[in-house]
Amino acid sequence: MADIFDIYLLEALINGVLLGGVLALLALGLNLVFGVIDVVWICYAELIMLGMYGMFFLFHQYHVPFLLSAMICIAGVGVLGMVLHVVVIAPLLGAAPINQFLATGGVLFFLQSAATVMFGIDFRNLGIRLPVLAVSEMFISYARLLAFGVALAGMVVLYLFLARTYTGTAIRAIAQDRQIMPLMGVDARRIYLVTSAIGGALAGLAATLLVLQYDVHPFIGLTFGPTTFMICVLGGLGNMVGVFIASFVFAEIISVSGLYLDLEWGYVFAFGFFIAMMFVRPQGLLARRT
Amino acid sequence: MLQLRDIDAGYGSFQALFGISLEVNAGEAVGVIGPNGAGKTTLMRVISGLIRPVRGSMQMEGADLIATPAHRIVELGIAHVPENRRLFPRMTVEDNLRMGAFIPAARPKFRARLEFVYALFPRLSERRSQLAGTLSGGEQQMCAIGRALMSEPRLLLLDEPSAGLAPVIVQQVFGLVERIRASGLTVLIVEQNVRQVLRVVDRAYLLEAGTLRASGDAGALMQSETIREAYLGV
To answer: Which residues of A touch B101 (CB under 8 A)?
Structure first.
């Protein structure tokens, strides 16, 4: 009895790690945009929803090969990120944070409603089922393994871009001192646009992975959105390492609590933990000392 | 090299500069001295485009600075070391220097410029992978000057390089200014530390309450009654 129980726990822990990788990808995209532009994309998860619909239509309806569909989706949602920035964010850059919050919140409901009108409320999926890997008594889904691997690879590419390129260095720098960027010869508007494209592309990448595990419907964003925000706040908005760690903490709480109770209880505990942490460490897990 | 004619500038409805006309010739070191709040920092920010003047004209080697967007001014050969250094504190020294070489013309020369800056400030080379925020005040000033030099400027704007530094470090910083001059750069330096700055510049302007009150050779200003009484305390 005890042995079997341990295996279930191990399975939950492994699934927690796998979930954590995908959550980290989601949270890093949102966090990057916040760190650089100082605006929270409340409608971030709705960009993922659109990406998932993109995958559904391209792959399932029009039979475009999976990899090509994925590339089109990543690029397409990247462009959506730029459009969101130019149309909604840029005119509000000087406005009060609450106005920016309401505007991107408005975009959330706009996209949900538009998706309902255009695509209906049916649950749709790609119609492919990846096999499940059985290791001794544990069951690990290939879809999750793939999502974890690709999410990790995506984050490594993002890291190298931020660490090694001039544009990436400027993206890090602008989050630390906005006003002097012109002295470096940096056009902040261009950096904002590039950052929005990357934020969108990360949402697009997440969409191509999540569509293998979840059915897409106009309200699927609610499944990921709140969790992503909690992770960003818990990790410290703008703090990449903190958010990365918070993703795995959150995922393990969800996964392990889900083992002992129900999956819904996992979320109850995760959000309860979040609220408690807001009292203990309101600046985030790895608060900056300055 | 740099010419300002009748520049008025300010922040919103607050006017900080009134009809400023000044000139910096190639190879010179020019100082702008004056008390706190006289508009010295505003003047530097106007030249590098962070503040756009409401009236007047500005040229750098014949190019119209007012028609140039702020982020393009560095491409005209002007590098600005801002007040309080303004390094990127959570980036390494080398990443800060990399930001200085952001403009397209500087990128291919990054390695060579890095060698040049490290030769000028060997201390920075020792600290290259340290976070800029953890440097001492004097080292931060070296890093800020080094960052500005990465774009291979012809004119260097230095805003209060001695501010907030211990006296012995102030001596070192003015020593740096002399080394930079020796490397052939033209320097425009703004300082409250009048005695020190008049030793390293050729000429200086006196800025008070947003207007230029006096100008002349550093030696002559050092002897002038007004400056001796108000700024040198003799």
So the answer is: 166
